[in-house]
Design goal:
Elements lengths: L1 E2 L3 H17 L21 E11 L2 E10 L2 E2 L15 E6 L9 E8 L4 E6 L3 E3 L7 E9 L4 E4 L4 E3 L4 E10 L4 E8 L16 E10 L5 E9 L17 E8 L2 H11 L2 E2 L3 E7 L5 E8 L2 H20 L11
Helix pairs in contact: 2-3
């Protein structure tokens, strides 16, 4: 693995984050600077780039560039079901997300390469009285590539503001499994924590790598202070939200949708549907307990991986 300081690439990522923050209408009320340290200052402007390449019958983490507070140490091969696939944990040296933080993540999976990327623990978005926190994620999958990007849940604390933008570029014959899970806050910590955050904005958009053709775009903006998230048509009494996107060939997406099924119950609801342009499908979960939502996502992950790669999932870690 080679490490190299690509200053121009890091600068472009930072400029993109600032541009997105200025242009997003939902962030207009949160442009004031923190009194403690300016937004995007040293230590608050993280960057991580991971490149995976297929070599000698297995995939490798061939390139990494990083800036604090984002960190990755090395690729591990702990997945016994896919022992030739590198697995990388993204680490935060601060252990949390603070006001004024800006982070950029870029993952590129080369032709016929495979990778699994996750985070060390849940993302804790701390309380804020100025500005906001933002992340930009750029995911690229080349022909025949396979990427699982499965970060741990986000936990927005009360008064927090968080903005996320994910750009995906995927080549024909490539497959990507992307997941996000949002908790309602630290509801057992304080009476104002349940849906106590000010803003959570997340958008994902994908294009075909060869042509730049748009495939789909999705954005949701949650403002608990302005909208009752528990009402019908939003969370409908549920508290935890899971969102999984599978980009793959149409025949595989159809088989996954049929196997995944759908259900609505008092504590859990889930279902999948096809995305535009025959590019894959989207799977959504609502629940009252994080364990149930995580298990629903894991079962969808098992079906998707089995359909796309022919492999099962490894055993669950006892501590995750």
């Amino acid at each position: 693995m080679t490490q190299c300081a690509d200053i121009s690439r890091v600068r472009r990522a930072r400029e993109n984050l600032e541009r997105l923050g200025r242009q997003a209408p939902e962030l207009r009320a949160f442009q004031n600077e923190p009194a403690q340290m300016p937004s995007g200052a040293v230590g608050k402007n993280g960057y991580l780039r991971l490149e995976f390449t297929a070599r000698n019958g297995r995939s490798e983490l061939s390139f990494m560039d990083r800036r604090v507070p984002l960190l990755a140490q090395r690729a591990l091969y702990w997945d016994e079901a896919m022992p030739r696939m590198p697995c990388v944990f993204i680490i935060s040296t601060t252990g949390c997300i603070l006001q004024g933080d800006r982070t950029a993540l870029e993952i590129e999976v080369g032709e016929n390469a495979q990778a699994h990327v996750t985070t060390q623990s849940a993302g804790k978005i701390h309380m804020m009285n100025a500005n906001y926190a933002a992340q930009w994620q750029n995911l690229v999958v080349e022909k025949g590539g396979y990427l699982e990007y499965m970060p741990e849940p986000m936990i927005p604390h009360r008064t927090s503001r968080f903005f996320s933008r994910t750009d995906i570029s995927i080549a024909g014959g490539g497959s990507l499994l992307y997941a996000e899970m949002l908790l309602p806050g630290r509801k057992h910590h304080h009476q104002d924590e349940l849906f106590g955050y000010e803003l959570y904005s997340s958008s994902v958009q994908a294009v075909r790598r060869e042509s730049g053709q748009p495939l789909f775009a999705e954005k949701f903006i949650l403002r608990p202070g302005a909208t009752d998230l528990a009402r019908t048509g939003v969370m409908n009494g549920f508290e935890i939200f899971g969102n999984v996107i599978l980009l793959t060939e149409r025949d595989k997406a159809l088989r996954v949708r049929e196997a995944a099924g759908a259900a609505v119950g008092p504590e859990l609801a889930y279902g999948a549907d096809l995305l535009p342009q025959d590019c894959g499908l989207i799977f959504k979960v609502l629940g009252l307990r994080s364990e149930a939502v995580r298990e629903a996502i894991r079962q969808f992950w098992r079906i998707a991986r089995g359909t796309v790669t022919g492999h099962d999932l490894p055993e669950k870690f006892l501590w995750r």
